[in-house]
Amino acid sequence: MADILAIVSRAVFEKDAKVGGKLLGQGDVWPLDRYNSSSKPLERLKKGGRIFLVTVRPDEQLWFLGVIDAPSFSGTSWVSKKANAYPITNITALRKTIKFDTGKGMSQDKGTLGMSLQTPRSLTLDDVAQILAVAGGKTPPEPVLTPPPSKARIIDGKYEVVRQLGVGGMGVVYEAKHTGTGRRVAIKEIHSDDLEHAPQLVERFQREARATGAIETQHIVLVLDSGTDAATKHPYLVMEYLQGEDLQHVLARTGPLREDVALKLVAQACQGLSRAHDAGVIHRDIKPANIYLAKRDAGELVVKVLDFGIARMKEATAPENRALTTTGLLLGSPLYMSPEQVLRPKDIDHRTDLWSLGVVLYEVLTGKTPCGDTLETVGALFVSICGKPAPSVRESNPAISEETAAIVKRALAIDTAARYATGEEFLADIQQRLDSKFTLDESMFPTDPKLVAVDPLAATQVKFGD
After folding, report:
1. Is residue 10 within 8 Å of 61, Cβ to Cβ?
2. What is the pTM assigned to this prediction?
3. 334 C-beta neighbours (distance < 10 Å), count
4. Which of 6, 34, 87, 428 has the fewest CB atoms inside 10 Å of its own CB, making it the most exposed?
5. Which residues contact 430 (CB under 8 A, 6 or more apart)?
6. Which residues are catalytic?
7. What is d(CA 86, CA 434) in angstroms, rounded to the nearest whole number?
8. All CATH 3.10.590 domain ranges in the chain, comma separated
9. What's the rounded Cα separation, in Å, for the pair 415 and 423?
10. What architecture does CATH give domain 2-135?
11. CATH superfamily membership of 244-459
């Protein structure tokens, strides 16, 4: 029996979820008995099962709407013999714990939740138990966890795993120590079924890792080693162990940053990208989660760009010209994709990174991306990216100077010929706006008490991207 999560669009919910002309809210029961869709993943329901319906509300709240139980397909809809009896419930807290049968969970990037759920996805028994517990007003059960091994794992005979730091769409990040020197490191082990049948991808990944490791700049995470574990056949990267916070968590904690702080932050990222581009390396997935503020002595913060090469592997293992896979997982980060990355992903050059960095600058200044907060589907987002110039940052924040607004506008030019040609050009315009060095420190990132606090464990974890 299949249990499948499916999304109801905001427009459909606000049109149909009404009683006596009033929109239903949390605690109300929406007595629906059908789901209008002919999506192929739902065909598993022909052998029995349930559809768990959700919708995404403002501020990315995830609402559980109810269950379509044991439906049959009418040709256009999946219809149940009985109406839903579950109350509408806010299950946003489960966004991080629902894993689906793929184990890859929901997108955690800001503004991408609705897009990442467009394709129906199969739930695990743990997922179902969590949803129904919350809908019933109970504390969700703890997910079933695999017990840690009694003996410490050694990767490739030389890196002893200390603990798991995070899980992403392409692998797992561990804290580890070198068995010979005792050096503390972070290891990203890449997991992908496609790699077993495409050894050339592993070779290219290792080649790009070596190229990135040879770039001498403090603004790119230092790659110390790479290889393939003999026991698992998984490729891995060994990186310097960082302590600090990624920009995605910073923005969730602080909201928009001061104009000078935003420019200094992006200037440091630009320095790292420029050195990478000079070495012929394109990142392809610049976003706040891949920009890390590493702590140094006396409260100084240094920006480091993470995950070079990972996006290229995602792209290479994806179906041709597909931005959304059949499992509903987004390839790359659509909110930060350049027009050419949408239209011609195999033919992009380094200017795609400059566009993405421009989107990051826009978000740091205003608290939102140019168009992601108003669009629900990947298709609508891509149409906007490719055909509609980004609105001025001054529309969202009039306090921003016209000079800085001009920098953002040029970085987000749809025509690559009108965009910054190099990171050095981007950096030069920023330098003209700053009277001092690009130094950052912790005092520049105060917490806004009006904002909802992020999970302190998540916010302080060592992170090396998704």
Report:
1. no
2. 0.70
3. 25
4. 428
5. 263, 266, 267, 270, 407
6. 285
7. 56
8. 2-135
9. 16
10. Roll (3.10)
11. Transferase(Phosphotransferase) domain 1 (1.10.510.10)
